[in-house]
Design brief:
Layout (H helix, E strand, L loop, with lengths): L2 H17 L5 H13 L12 H9 L2 H10 L15 H13 L3
Helix pairs in contact: 2-5, 4-5
């Protein structure tokens, strides 16, 4: 591989990482999850609704994360945003749970 090709490959890796900076749980919730968990017309349990979240929280963090990653019922995998990383999904789940206990 020629030197300029190698440097170009390195530049692409850094550029890709810069395009998708990790979002916080709050950012993921705001941009993705709130569409179904943030309004009175919600399909899923509304954030802050302790009664609706209680049975889900009792299932445990692993079950909640698995459902969020793989989809469950009407909820698509990763809330319908396949570009989300596992960490972003996990942070969003923790954000919603922490505001719903």
């Amino acid at each position: 591989m020629k030197r300029y090709q190698f440097l170009g490959a390195i530049a692409c890796v850094f550029y890709s990482a810069a395009i998708h900076a990790e979002m916080t749980g709050k950012e993921v919730y705001t941009e993705v999850c709130s569409l179904c968990h943030g309004t009175i017309m919600s399909i899923g349990p509304k954030i802050g609704d302790k009664a609706a979240w209680a049975p889900r929280i009792r299932q445990g963090d692993d079950a909640l994360l698995r459902h969020a990653l793989q989809g469950y019922g009407q909820m698509p995998a990763r809330g319908g945003d396949s570009s989300l990383t596992d960490g972003e999904v996990k942070d969003a789940v923790h954000y919603m749970v922490s505001h719903s206990q």
